[in-house]
């Protein structure tokens, strides 16, 4: 009997505790919903503060970070869900003097409220710090050097913009002539206090619609989005009618309706506000349809200006190294037609090349392109042939493919460098034995492409861009093998695929669903990018069309679960589901069928792996659950997952977030012996009593970022020893000084 009693007690506790937990929900509905309402109100106030900081920063050429944008979106989503839940509860309580007889309904609402309460508190912890809300937006197009003869265009443009006569100003010229560079110079000049007006820069694309421009204005100015296009039109019109503004529409290919977008007619408020529209285009027809009142036509450079620019790009010493090179260089500049972009790109491609035969070959390619007596649409073809010299001179096919895949992002999009490198990894363009080396190789590729002007961006920025003409040239090269869907949609988008389609991108279209069709029984599609849309239900990917798919990106949508159908795509090697609905819950066991999967990115999601699923993913190298409370509140599952990934033969790195783990759990994780490195996210502010060992510091900066020579770390004094510092300081290659700042224990 003495033996039986402890067993019975143990079993009773194991059964009773979970039951009591659920019974409790039926009696705590009122408390849970009120607590949710209170925390949501606090979260709403924080969100409004963050949005105000974003708007203030935009006045000083700042822009919201992706982390801040994602946090605001998550808060707005949970605000809506909390309000709907509270309305349901209030309706239930209208009967029997606030005592509802429907116990089952009360139980469900109470349980959902408790879960939402945990999510809202987690969002409170993950509120971006002031230095993570905005960043300086440096116009990346400004890097194109142009000769001083361009200044008359700038002077004329500024005179018209600041003057009172012309409301719509057009800048006309062929691709690569310097129109975008000119409007970026205008943007730089229109700063307070000399010019007191809102300056709104909107990059456009070939199929840019009124709605897309409308959405970009809303995003640019931090205006609340109301839903329908008509409602947004009224909101924009009210916002702009009350202020002076200059709207820059860069690279318009067709006419857009300013009235439908919400741009007020300056004639209705004469003299009250200065309201201007500046557009750039390659088409004189667009200028006419947009009722441009003053046109600035940007001409190609004359030889006197083109030659010094080419000499600077190709290096004067190289040109003078051989008489034949001098001759070929002059002929090449003449063939480039005075286009600054082409002069820079070809000059960079020939930099330090002292082989006369290669210069002769470049000249022959330009002669084949030809520019004499051709129509404007053929001039684009000439520009592409010209720029392709820079592409053809890249050192190998890998680097060429890396460049081409940059065009899968929309025109003018700031491409996160990390995201680009990760796509290259998923495609197998970067295949290194460890993640650190893979990132380093990827960033070196970006540097190479920037040096030959195929990409643009500052070294200290986290983003790169493609010049519009470079973007068009890349798509021209892949025109028969890629589909890049652009434009803004609010419903389902239908996309037709051919047998030869290898890559498909429908990024940032605003679609809520996609449907795919083909006249062929199968396709060769290996890359599918549907990220940054509004997918909110399970997406259907026909197996016969995507049987060879290796890369799938569904990040930054509104999915609340992993579509099980995706698990039938057995050749997937890269799957990105990051930043969808917060609570993804239990992942399907079918995930284990993706035995070729190498990269699984689940950032910003709260999810749990069924036991044994990870063990089936034999090829898995990287599991990234950072920026999220990974398995929050379920630490046994965390350590189970850790144990499974350690058994995978190719595993390299695990990204993870600590949000509500106890000190002992964190210490256990940090000291868990494993060959896999980690990068770790902590809540802000970090708990003062967190018992972190020095090993946690070494893994905190695992990802390839620039580490300052002096690193300051706040840790409890009693967790540090001289021995631990000696053992682990060498982990940071460039670290010269490590400052440890003890945290005083809070009074009990």
From TrEMBL:
Pfam families in the record: NB-ARC, WHD_DRP
Keywords: Coiled coil, Plant defense, Repeat
Entry coiled-coil feature ranges: 40-95
Highest taxon above the source species: Eukaryota
GO MF: ADP binding
GO biological process terms held by the UniProt record: defense response to bacterium; innate immune response-activating signaling pathway; plant-type hypersensitive response
Stored InterPro entries: AAA+_ATPase (IPR003593), Apaf_helical (IPR042197), Disease_R_plants (IPR044974), LRR_dom_sf (IPR032675), NB-ARC (IPR002182), P-loop_NTPase (IPR027417), WHD_DRP (IPR058922)
Gene3D superfamilies to which the protein is assigned, alphabetical: Helical domain of apoptotic protease-activating factors, P-loop containing nucleotide triphosphate hydrolases, Ribonuclease Inhibitor
Domain AAA+ ATPase: residue ranges: 165-302
Name of protein: AAA+ ATPase domain-containing protein
Protein's organism: Rhynchospora tenuis
């Amino acid at each position: 009997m003495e033996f039986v009693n402890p067993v019975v007690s143990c079993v009773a506790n194991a059964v009773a505790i979970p039951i009591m937990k659920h019974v409790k929900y039926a009696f705590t509905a009122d408390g849970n919903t009120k607590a949710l309402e209170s925390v949501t109100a606090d979260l709403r106030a924080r969100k409004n503060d963050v949005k105000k900081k974003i708007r203030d920063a935009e006045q000083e050429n700042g822009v919201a970070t992706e982390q801040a944008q994602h946090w605001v979106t998550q808060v707005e989503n949970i605000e809506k869900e909390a309000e709907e839940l509270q309305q349901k509860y209030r309706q239930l309580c209208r009967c029997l003097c606030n005592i509802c007889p429907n116990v089952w309904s009360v139980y469900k609402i109470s349980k959902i409220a408790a879960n939402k309460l945990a999510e809202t508190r987690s969002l409170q912890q993950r509120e971006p710090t002031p230095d993570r809300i905005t960043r300086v937006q440096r116009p990346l197009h400004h890097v194109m050097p142009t000769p001083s003869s361009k200044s008359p265009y700038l002077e004329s443009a500024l005179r018209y913009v600041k003057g009172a006569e012309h409301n719509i100003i057009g800048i006309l010229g062929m691709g690569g002539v310097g129109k975008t560079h000119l409007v970026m110079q205008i943007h730089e000049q229109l700063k307070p206090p000399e010019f007191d007006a809102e300056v709104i820069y909107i990059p456009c694309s070939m199929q840019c619609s009124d709605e897309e421009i409308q959405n970009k204005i809303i995003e640019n100015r931090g205006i609340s989005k109301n839903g329908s296009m008509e409602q947004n039109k009224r909101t924009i019109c009210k916002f702009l009618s009350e202020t002076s503004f200059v709207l820059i529409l860069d690279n318009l290919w067709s006419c857009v309706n300013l009235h439908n977008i919400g741009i007020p007619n300056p004639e209705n408020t004469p003299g009250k506000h200065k309201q201007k529209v500046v557009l750039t285009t390659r088409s004189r027809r667009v200028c006419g349809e947009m009722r441009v009142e003053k046109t600035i036509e940007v001409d190609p450079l004359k030889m006197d200006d083109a030659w010094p620019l080419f000499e600077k790009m190709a290096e004067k010493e190289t040109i003078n190294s051989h008489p034949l090179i001098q001759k070929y260089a002059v002929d090449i500049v003449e063939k480039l037609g005075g286009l600054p972009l082409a002069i820079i790109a070809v000059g960079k491609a020939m930099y330090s090349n002292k082989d006369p035969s290669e210069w002769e070959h470049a000249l022959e390619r330009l002669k084949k392109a030809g520019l004499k007596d051709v129509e404007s649409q053929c001039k684009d073809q000439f520009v592409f042939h010209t720029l392709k010299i820079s592409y053809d001179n890249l050192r190998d096919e890998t680097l060429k493919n890396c460049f081409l895949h940059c065009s899968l992002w929309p025109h003018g999009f700031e491409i996160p460098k990390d995201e680009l490198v990760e796509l290259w990894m998923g495609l197998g363009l970067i295949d290194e034995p460890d993640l650190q080396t893979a990132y380093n190789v990827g960033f070196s590729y970006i540097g190479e492409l920037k040096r030959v002007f195929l990409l643009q961006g500052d070294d200290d920025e986290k983003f790169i861009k493609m010049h519009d003409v470079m973007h068009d040239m890349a798509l021209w090269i892949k025109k028969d093998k890629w589909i890049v869907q652009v434009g803004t949609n609010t419903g389902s988008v239908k996309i037709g695929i051919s047998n030869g389609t290898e890559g498909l991108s429908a990024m940032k279209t605003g679609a809520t669903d996609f449907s795919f069709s083909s006249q062929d029984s199968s396709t060769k599609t290996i890359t599918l990018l549907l990220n940054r849309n509004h997918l909110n239900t399970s997406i259907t990917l026909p197996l016969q069309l995507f049987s060879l798919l290796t890369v799938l990106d569904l990040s930054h949508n509104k999915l609340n679960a992993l579509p099980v159908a995706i698990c039938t795509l057995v050749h997937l090697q890269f799957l990105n589901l990051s930043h969808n609905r917060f609570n993804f819950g239990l992942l399907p066991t079918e995930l284990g069928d993706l035995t070729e999967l190498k990269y699984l990115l689940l950032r910003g999601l709260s999810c749990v792996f069924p036991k044994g699923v990870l063990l089936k993913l034999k090829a898995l190298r990287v599991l990234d659950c950072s920026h999220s409370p990974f398995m929050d509140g379920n630490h046994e599952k965390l350590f189970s997952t850790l144990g499974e990934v350690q058994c995978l033969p190719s595993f390299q790195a695990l990204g993870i977030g600590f949000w509500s783990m106890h000190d002992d759990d964190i210490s256990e994780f940090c000291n868990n012996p494993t060959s896999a490195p980690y990068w770790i996210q902590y809540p802000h502010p970090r708990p003062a009593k967190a018992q972190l060992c020095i090993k946690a510091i070494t893994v905190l900066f695992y990802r390839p970022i620039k580490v300052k020579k002096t690193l300051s770390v706040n840790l409890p004094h009693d967790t540090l020893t001289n021995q631990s510092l000696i053992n682990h300081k060498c982990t940071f290659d460039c670290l010269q000084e490590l400052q440890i700042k003890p945290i005083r224990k809070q009074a009990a």
